[in-house]
Amino acid sequence: MFEILRKDRIIADKAFNRWMVPPAALFIHLSIGMIYGFSIFWDELTKLVGVECDASVTFMERIFTTSCDWLRSDVVWTFAIAIVFLGMSAAVFGHWLEKAGPRKAGFAAAIAWGGGLMITGLGASLHQLWLIWLGAGVIGGIGLGLGYISPVSTLIKWFPDRRGLATGMAIMGFGGGAMIGMPLGDSLIGSYGVAQTFFVMGCIYLVSMSIGAFGYRVPAEGWKPEGWNPEVKKQSTMISANHVHVSTAHKTPQFWLLWGVLCLNVSAGIGVLSVAKPMFKEIAASSFDPLVIGAVATGFGALLSFANIIGRIFWASSSDFLGRKLTYAIFFSLGTALYLAAPWAGLNQYIATFVIINLVILTMYGGGFATIPAYLADIFGTQHVGAIHGRLLTAWSLAGIIGPMLISYLREYQLALGIPTDQAYNSSFKILAGLLVLGFVLNLLVKPVNKKFYMTEKQLQDEQGSSTKKEVLVASTMTNTSLQSILLPLAWLVVSVPIAWGIMNALQKGLIIFQ
Predict the structure, then answer these.
(1) Which residues contact 450 (CB under 8 A, 6 or more apart)?
(2) CA-derived radius of gyration, the chain
(3) How far apart are CA 478 and CA 16, in angstroms?
(4) In whole angstroms, what is the distance from residue 130 CA to residue 63 CA?
(5) Helices (H), 127-252
(6) Interacting residues of 418 by C-beta distance below 8 A, sequence separation 6+
(7) Strand partners, 69
(8) Which pLDDT value is given to residue 467?
(9) pLDDT for the residue numbered 419
(10) What is the end-to-end Cα distance of the chain in Å, rounded?
(11) Rounded Cα gap, residues 141 and 150, in angstroms
(12) pLDDT value of residue 471
């Protein structure tokens, strides 16, 4: 089995249709994207015992207690830990992935994410918070990192003519995972309880991600789309024709500017996503019947996921025409205005307006993730874009702590001061707006890389290796065109059905908000 995971076993021949690769990426990203839907578990995890912890019970004691319930801020750490390990694993394994190939990385991601959720189910069953952190946080986070970066450089190489579209397709599913997983999780929780739900979803994702991993193929060295001639297209000064080695990229100011750009954009959006359902329930409590507010809040979370997935494909594709730098300038300027407007809408109970504001914010949040790999390819070249992207995702690790912890702990501080529950998030939104202003400045400073950091022609040839061996390997993996003609529409149908179901479900539940 390990033989068929090797990169040299998945090099495609000229008959292979590149549109077979995006569905494989979606199988994986729709699975790991459920991390954005974890807010449906927080209330359930804080009611497993049914006894509130006394104020004298310390944070360390709550990690191991079986006699009283955890605080919401305790369980939200699961999300933060997962994002931290996502970034760390992407950084550590990014260069390995370039050599090992996307299939091996995708299969490892399936085992880690699926297995991590099963361990989380055990932690919920035994009421051991450390097991939940270990399962969904540490092990699951490693699966998230491997799964997240597995298709990025592969799709950029398959679609050199549309880098933004390629990364949008690669990462689109991560935004839509919660749109599918949240209603599925809610249904399973209602039938089996939260512990069993983690186990069942772990099994589902293990199978789905394995299918995606075995669907990956990589292009032969020097492959380009038929009829595409990059020389005749006018190149922007922000798009480099050269390559920067992964070991050199972090020595450039551009890497750290883009690191800051991603960190600040993510910190703002991820804070909202991490507490989507409980936040909406508290802000909109007076506008809805208590019997339906839970379902409406789930619909809000699903709508955010819908906006996330739309933003990833829309903004990333648009960046092919607007340019990456201008696209990010729009994110930060428009985002600042919207974050400042959100408290006003919530305070006046303009719930529909509050929802629309957050939906637009989430399109730009998702768009930022989908655009950054293409931004990196423009600045550093494509040879090591996957590995450089992996290292840049450490910015996501920090953002995964800043956003959720800022909004969670600031809420508890506001409540302790006597601020009404529906206003406890106002200060958080204003601080998040400030982060976007700083991000706008950093993006403004991004310039082309100094020529001294480029790889020499010899270094590039050494990296790419001998093409002769690759040609032999391509010949040994000939594409069955008849089978491919059947599998291509089938693969797209299989990934499209759950996405369509998720969209319909999100819109159905979300319409209640606007009535």
Answers:
(1) 252
(2) 23
(3) 8
(4) 6
(5) 129-132, 140-149, 152-158, 163-192, 194-213, 246-249
(6) none
(7) 52
(8) 41
(9) 87
(10) 54
(11) 14
(12) 44
Specify the amino acid at residue 69: D
Residue 366 to residues 9, 76, 311, 328, 400, Cα–Cα distance (Å): 33, 21, 5, 12, 14
Exposed (0-12), middle (13-18) or buried (19+): which is 71, by Cβ within 10 Å? Answer: middle
Closest CA to 187 of 112, 298, 109, 90: 298
Cβ proximity of 343 and 358 under 8 Å: no
Q: How far apart are CA 249 and CA 385, in angstroms?
A: 10
Tokens 């394995």: give the residue.
210
Residue 411's φ and ψ, nearest 5 degrees, are: -60, -45
Contacts of 177 (CB under 8 A, 6+ apart): 29, 30, 31, 32, 33, 34, 35, 36, 37, 305
Averages of pLDDT over each 10 residues, the chain, 515 residues: 80 89 93 88 90 87 90 88 90 87 94 97 95 96 93 85 80 82 90 95 97 92 78 62 86 95 90 77 82 79 82 90 93 94 88 90 91 90 85 86 82 84 83 92 93 80 55 55 90 91 81 74
Find where tokens 């950084």 sit: 91
Q: What pLDDT does residue 470 have? A: 46
Q: Which amino acid is at 3?
A: E
H helices of 417-480, in order, are: 426-444, 457-464, 467-475
Other beta carbons within 10 Å of 227: 6
Query: In this predicted structure, what is the pLDDT of residue 469?
Result: 47
| C-alpha span between 18 and 143 (Å, rounded) | 25
- Tokens representing 252? 């450039």
pLDDT at 236: 62
**Domains of the chain with CATH codes:** 2-223+242-450+481-514 (1.20.1250.20)
pLDDT at res. 472:
42
Q: Are 76 and 406 in contact (CB under 8 A)?
A: no
Tokens for 318, please give them.
Answer: 């648009």
Residue 179: its pLDDT value, please? Answer: 82
